[in-house]
Design brief:
mainly alpha; 6 helices; about 0% strand; elongated
Length: about 150
């Protein structure tokens, strides 16, 4: 009788261990799925800031397009243009590719990008650009004076 009872307890322990293992496996899969989704979301928002929400909303309304589509167009544009020097970029080809991907006319895509980049410049962006250019200028000037000192 004790032997039978031990076998039963042993089987129960094995079942509990298997259930625990399966549960952990499912949990790991769901964690992996969540991580993939987060990664995708981070990639989608990689080029746009939280500060751009107002601009994107205004563009979405003014161009009569869903916000997701506007975000997608802008992210595609920045993804393709930020990795190259200005000399190497074929803007026409990039806009054409984005237009085909989103099933929109090239003019609409170009208009969204132009509006976002040039027409909707905020005061903070103007100040940031000025500060950045000033810093670059001062660094360049400092480098030149160091070069002259060395020579």
């Amino acid at each position: 009788m004790i032997k039978t009872l031990l076998r039963l307890v042993n089987k129960i322990l094995i079942c509990i261990t298997l259930l625990n293992f399966i549960s952990c496996s499912d949990h790991n899969k769901s964690d992996l799925k969540i991580k993939k989704e987060k990664s995708k979301i981070e990639k989608d928002n990689n080029f746009l800031d939280d500060n751009d929400t107002e601009k994107i909303t205004l563009l979405s309304i003014s161009k009569n397009l869903p916000q997701k589509l506007v975000i997608s167009i802008l992210n595609d544009y920045y993804e393709k243009t930020l990795i190259f020097d200005d000399k190497e970029i074929d803007y026409n080809k990039i806009i054409d590719t984005i237009a085909k991907k989103n099933n929109l006319p090239k003019q609409k895509v170009a208009s969204i990008i132009f509006s976002f980049q040039y027409e909707q410049i905020t005061q903070d962006e103007i100040i940031e650009k000025y500060s950045s250019e000033k810093e670059d200028y001062l660094n360049e000037k400092e480098d030149k004076s160091l070069e002259e000192t060395i020579n």
